[in-house]
Amino acid sequence: MKKKDRMHKGGIEKFIANFGWPRIIIAIFLLLLFVIAPFIGIDVGTSLSDMLVRVGMNGILVLAMVPMIQSGCGLNFGLPLGIIAGLVGAVTSMEYNWQGLFGFGMAVLFAIPLAVLLGVMYGYFINMAKGDEMMIGTYVGFSVVAFMSMMWLRLPYRNPLLVWGFSGTGLRTTISLTGFWMKVLDNFLAIRIGPRFFFPTGSFIFFALCCVLVWAFFKTKTGIAMSAVGSNPQFARAHGVSEDRMRIVSVVLSTVLGAVGMVVYEQSYGFIQLYMGPLYMAFPAVAAILLGGATINSATISNVVIGTFLFQGILTMTPSVINGMLQTDVAEVIRILVSNGMILYALTRKGKGTVK
Amino acid sequence: MNVKLRRNLLRVALCLIAVAGGFLLSFIGMYHSIILDNSEFSGAGAVLPPLEGLRVVSEAEPVEMSPGDRILVSAKGPSTTLVFEITSPETQQSREISYTLHMGFKKQFFLSVPAIVGGEKDPFFVE
Amino acid sequence: MTNEKPLLSMKGIQKDFLGNRVLEDINLDLAQGEILGLVGENGAGKTTLMNILFGMPVIQQTGGYKGTIALDGEEVRFSNPNAALMAGIGMVHQEFFLIPDFSATENIFLNREVTRYSLLVEIFGDRLRTLDKAAMNERVVQVIKELGVNINPDTLVSEMPVSYKQFTEIAREIDRAKIKILVVDEPTAVLTETEAEALLAVLKRLAAKGVGIIFISHRLHEILNICDRIVVLRDGKLIKDISSGQSDVKSIASWMVGHEIGDFAFHHTENHRKTENFLSIDHLKVLMPGEAVKDLCLQVHEGEILGIGGLAGQGKLGIANGIMGLFPAEGSVTLKGKSLKLNSPLDAFRAGMAFISEDRRGIGLLLTQSIGLNIAFPLMQVKGGLLKKIAGLFTWEDKKKIREITSSYIERLDIKCTGPDQSVMELSGGNQQKVCVAKVLALSPQILFASEPTRGIDIGAKHLVLSVLREINEKEGTTIIMTSSELGELRSICDRIAIVNEGKIAGILPAEAPVEDFGLLMLGE
Amino acid sequence: MKPKYSLKGALISNLVPIVFLMFAAFAVPMSGLSIPYLLHEMISRLARDSLLVLSLVIPVLAGMGLNFGMVLGAMAGQIGMVLVVDWGLGGMPALLVAALLGTPISIGLGYFCGYILNLAKGREMVTSYIIGFFMNGAYQFLLLYCMGSIIPITNPELLLSRGYGIRNSMDLPNIRQVLDRLVSVEVFGMDIPILTFAVIAVFCLLIVWFKTTKIGQDMRAVGRNRAVANGAGIPVEKTRILAIIISTLIACYGQIVSLQNLGTINTYNSHEQVGIFSIAALLVGGATAENASIANVFVGVFLFHLMFVVSPMAGKNLIGDAQLGEYFRVFVSYGIIAVSLLLHAWKKRHEMLERRLLENDGKE
């Protein structure tokens, strides 16, 4: 009996050690919010749906962190590159007025080759800057966003629904997806319970599919080699694995996932935001995966899923609960504090499992 | 006195000087708004009519005030001197009355010009 | 020798390191103005002894030491290197402890700068005193003159020749107010002959001023030349404490290397297919930091076990690392008449070579991964084994096969673990090494490079690893090139032993050759 | 031994400023802006931004890279300014009081930032960058929710209509250019703010002097080689924290000087841009994350702002689209940071490899 007790205790300690204090605290906090919500007049059904929709919306962008973390390139602050590819794909598909799932599919199809191209370029940069990947990724991302801002003004898109009415050239800052492929995934096989609860089945299926693909990739020869590069580059090199090549592959993969994730995000969001819109989009994704328990040098699919749920949960619930209680709107501030606090926590933690 | 104690005392003193300096600077640098009112003033017993032919010289540009006018002048520092030039419309004689206001840290003052000119001890009024 | 009270006296020093006794009952005296030569093979305990003297944190962290140290007859026990420095013990490091972008003066006075009072000190504390460059330069010029060399105090260390860096370090140590003892760790290893001579002259001059010097070196001629007394350590024991006049190179060499045969003597069989020119290494140059190989030529016969020995830093480890493509290499390596592409680990593997790295945790293993993956990884990446195709499209790891093969190796090599899925990090050193061995066995290589395969593992594991090597050599005809710092171990298993000195082969001897001969080759005599 | 100086070496090490100079030589005529106008603008902008950029020099000296955490100092300066405006101060006393208020806040924030950076050695830049974002959250919380509710704000004009929280922007009528105008000289019709430049000069001298002190020497040692510095008994972590505190303080004063020049505060945006622009300017001036001098500061501010002023007009005249020029300069400021960091990282790696090989040769 005693022994069992001890084992049980050890189990909890191990669980806490694995799970990490911040995650536990935030999970409890989130649970608390859901418990409080009905007492201050917030509808749990709506909140839950909100959260689920946002999980489906952001999940793949968070997943896009995994390959680069696994190959030792750190957090992918260069996510805007993938996002740009996703935007170009979406806009191009809309230029031809393609609609519904077909339009969505074509957007993904257009986005992927561009993402591969950008990813290869970005990968070379990342390899030039070993050890400084995150800072450089951030600024490469920013530069590309600014560069594309010039491009949005100049690219020969002509569809009147996309471009500024008065000049006939230059894409609008915000483009609505209504009439194209707004919420095609969210609504696919969607489950509605009552007037308020909505489950975006399609987005979840798609998210799950991407997760399975990434998971499966890491079981292939290349995937295993990539993880090896991440956890011990010298080991990988000693066994004939090209570190630089694997890193480029991982960056390409991350960028492609970012592109696909962006298209999914757009269909759910219902709008496309061009120009400086994508500038800071990497940060919530980075924060989410870290919240899920990933570190700078190791991430799993479960980190992605847990992290996305927790992060989006906090983001939906905290503002509405606090608003309900204090009548103030502190959503933005909480978002900033939680996401950047999470990133800071990860940056200051001594890398677990790294061998120096 | 040992070195450490001396230095710590010096540091504390410097901090105090900084704080005091901050107060002093606030005292010197504070802008106050003075609202001058040229309408009938009823103070302790007496009722003073508004003044005609009034010109106010303050830290800003001189301004003329008709009866019933209310103007805002701003002044910087612990005290300011307002000069009222009153030219009697009948006699064309003018007289000058200067009034020094000690403002301290209070930001806003409501002053009745007829009260000042009339020599009231308490020319302030409440809105 | 003087009869006065010794400057430094170490008595009964004993140190255990993780259960291993690395120093045993060392008694050592150093008199004023004496130069003491400290010699011994790598791992004989010289460094540990010096670490104890300096109160290095590493000693306390591993449980302290037994015995007493007395300085000027007063017992001392330093808790940190700074305390030792304050007491007047200086050290000239083998790796330069200098900031390259700083001038000689700045380095010599690092954190001991001569400063002047400035008013802001009163407010912000002493660190706001201003530097007195003139005073410092003056003192440096004086110290350098004392050393009898010619260094401009403003020269950046990065622009100095190596010997000047060494002089800068010595200058720093002697500028400390009351230097009594100076420890010089292999100072001449990086110097040219003339530079070394200049340094020795400086040391002699210092000794004449009454500084006691502990001189650690592998160059026995130098030791005999400048030291008054020589102390030989071997396996943590003090073997000999003798005045330098009474010894010669040959006897020192034999004291260092010792006579004992290794723990395991294997029976030498003579039925190898000794094809000449099986693997020939010509003019190999490897840029491995600390283990550089310079213009090395070596012929390996098919089916033999060739030992490579030599002192640390001479380049013996560079050979395998260079051929396996881990460090930039030049020259030519021919296997059975076919030239091998250098600087490409993959090509080396494909040519049938495999490597047990001396850096087990750094290069040899994926510590955070499972035993199974570690064993399967090379096979998977190099030969495309242990993979299965799914739907004819994706090649996926074959979990079942990996488990099978791992379990078989766990059994064969007696790896103590909970199963193939346990992470390697949780295993003991010996079992980790067994995983490394399993990893290369799975490749069934033609040629196996084993670098320090028994370093840091317990006796049982050691025996097992060596017998497995012997076994695959005999049964599968694998040619093995084994590098080791332990001569006894090499002699117990190898057919021939090549000794590397200064990046070249100093000589090849049969394993049965007398120990002294090996010792002399190692010391380059 | 290699020759110490060469024209090629000088060109390469000053590549970034040279490229920008060439760009300016091309863009200035394209913009159609007059030289006196540009000169005037440049003088005004040098006065405005030099101090902010100067704040980046000390952490580079201590080997901590470009301190993106300088925005913390800018926040401190802004908090000081907001309070001063609320109290109705004006003129030079207002600036001095704002600086006095900003000082303890900067020291506190600098300590916090330095402490965190010590936990993230080797990743200082990205960490300081995130600290900037994180503290921006705290800053917004303080100004949007605490001021006017917990912290008393007496001037209702500063508050949002809901009764608490500071407005998005505020004018500084009594503070606008008080420092610039207090002592200024007119040369060829241009006002040169002598006093502002004098303040900047004092800080430059302080930095130069600082390098000759014990702590300055310690910082250099820590920056060049942490292990050796530690071995020599220099308190590495404390020294690094001090470097960040000094940087934060200078940034605080810099922001105050910058705000008085502008005459308005964008409560929630002013400081955000400060970090990126200052770092871009320093890099344009030819500095790297490992080496920054005072000359880099001035060259950088001049060239960066020249491009800043010229590029929208040049864009408009060249392509007929001012918006494009606008985006172009954003692209350039981000791009220059990316490229400089990239070149720097690449160079660092190559130097490391080279050094490793050299060490090998040395043993021959």
Largest sheet report of chain A: 2 strands, antiparallel
Helix and strand pattern of chain A: HHHHHHHEHEEHHHHEHHH
What is the number of independent domains of chain A? 1
Number of helices of chain A: 15
Give the oligomer, counting copies of the same chain as homo and different chains as hetero.
Answer: heterotetramer
Q: Nearest-angstrom radius of gyration of chain A?
A: 21 Å
Q: The CATH topology of the largest domain in chain C, please?
A: Rossmann fold
CATH class of the largest domain in chain C: Alpha Beta
Binned strand content of chain C: 25-35%
Layout of secondary structure:
The complex is a heterotetramer of chains A (356), B (127), C (525) and D (364).
Chain B: H1 3-29, E1 31-37, E2 41-42, E3 47-48, E4 54-57, E5 63-65, E6 70-76, E7 79-87, E8 94-102, E9 108-112, H2 113-117
Parallel strand pairs in B: 1-9
Antiparallel strand pairs in B: 1-6, 2-3, 4-5, 4-7, 7-8
Chain C: E1 8-17, E2 20-30, E3 35-40, H1 46-54, H2 57-61, E4 66-71, E5 74-76, H3 81-86, E6 89-92, H4 104-108, E7 115-116, H5 121-124, E8 130-131, H6 133-147, H7 162-175, E9 181-185, H8 193-208, E10 212-216, H9 220-226, E11 229-234, E12 237-243, H10 249-257, E13 279-286, E14 293-300, E15 305-309, H11 316-323, E16 329-335, E17 338-339, H12 345-350, E18 353-356, H13 360-364, H14 371-383, E19 387-390, E20 394-397, H15 399-412, H16 429-441, E21 447-451, H17 459-475, E22 479-483, H18 487-493, E23 496-501, E24 504-510, H19 515-522
Parallel strand pairs in C: 3-10, 3-11, 6-9, 9-10, 15-22, 15-23, 18-21, 21-22
Antiparallel strand pairs in C: 1-2, 1-4, 4-5, 7-8, 11-12, 13-14, 13-16, 16-17, 19-20, 23-24
Chain D: H1 7-13, H2 15-31, H3 35-54, H4 57-61, H5 70-86, H6 91-119, H7 124-146, E1 169-171, H8 178-182, E2 184-187, E3 190-193, H9 194-211, H10 214-224, H11 226-231, H12 236-262, E4 264-266, H13 270-284, H14 294-319, H15 322-362
Antiparallel strand pairs in D: 1-4, 2-3
Helix pairs in contact in D: 2-14, 3-9, 3-12, 3-13, 3-14, 5-6, 5-7, 5-12, 5-13, 6-7, 6-12, 10-12, 13-14, 13-15, 14-15
